[in-house]
Design goal:
By secondary structure, the protein is α/β, with parallel strands linked by helices. The chain has helices at 14-20, 37-43, 48-69, 88-111, 127-140, 156-172, 182-186, 234-244, 255-261, and strands at 2-4, 29-33, 73-80, 114-119, 146-154, 199-202, 221-224. The radius of gyration is 19 Å and the shape is globular.
């Protein structure tokens, strides 16, 4: 199901929103396309990098919000393969901000026991960025309660093609026999250790997937909001979750079938 944010929660406080959440049916895995940093800055007469800096503040608050709520898995689209087409100066600044963010958030990851999991073509990042990304991933790999997955130099189509090539290689080596099943194929994706997202949030008014987690979001609930990512905060997170809890996730089944299975 696809939904845009239409509910009027303006008269409710954050505590009111929180009290309406059913903590027993929170999503297990949330994915976010963090869109609108550049436009947020342009509308304020600021350089684009100012929007990216504010976007990192938003990310920090959203990570902490999900951690506080007990949502164990968060995956964010930080830098797509298409983003390499941007001006070199902007890319350099983005990589610098990423390194600074990881350095600053190290203590938070340890304090909250959050595993940092990078996915994508990490080898295409600048050497210093690769080093920082790998260092934080190594430091936090033993945490199991919460995972922040960050897609860097990532593209959904490329991920699928890479998985196909790896699978073909294993078949040729004799490591794989028998039919190719969905569950087998999923083991070759960069998200093999993660369940599919329950909820995908995209900010800044766009209603498209932009080559993100193409295989994984087959049955994911989609939520679009006009709020640009730099303005997305704890309150916006709560609104998105309340919207999600109004959905009926049928996975192709009839409502009556679900009701029977749930004993309703």
């Amino acid at each position: 199901m696809i939904s845009r944010s239409r509910e009027n929660f303006s008269e409710l406080t954050d505590n009111d929103l929180l009290s309406q959440l059913d903590h027993s049916v929170l999503p297990h895995h949330v994915a976010i396309i963090m869109d609108g940093n550049g436009r947020w800055a342009s509308h304020r007469g600021l350089p684009r990098i100012a929007g990216h800096k504010e976007g990192l503040i938003a990310l920090r608050e959203v990570v902490n919000t999900f951690s506080d709520l007990g949502v164990p898995l968060l995956t964010v689209y930080a830098f797509s393969q298409e983003n390499w087409k941007r001006p070199k100066a902007e890319i350099a600044l983005l990589m610098m901000l990423l390194e600074e963010f990881l350095d600053q958030e190290r203590h938070t990851f340890h304090e909250r026991k959050i595993r940092f999991l990078p996915i994508g073509q990490i080898h295409t990042l600048p050497p210093s960025t690769q080093k920082q990304v790998q260092a934080v991933a190594d430091e936090t790999r033993h945490f199991t309660d919460r995972t922040l997955t960050v897609a860097l130099s990532y593209g959904g189509r490329c991920e699928i093609v890479d998985a196909v090539n790896d699978l073909i290689e294993d078949v040729q080596r004799g490591n794989v026999s028998g039919p190719i099943t969905e569950s087998l194929f999923e083991q070759y994706l960069t998200t093999a250790a993660l369940p599919d997202p329950d909820l995908l949030i995209r900010t800044s008014g766009e209603a498209r997937i932009s080559n993100f987690l193409l295989w994984q979001i087959a049955y994911t609930e989609l939520y679009f909001t006009n709020t640009p990512w730099p303005d997305f905060r704890r309150r916006d997170t709560l609104v998105a979750l309340l919207n999600y809890q109004k959905r009926e996730r049928r996975f192709g089944r009839l409502s009556s079938t679900l009701s029977h299975q749930n004993g309703l």
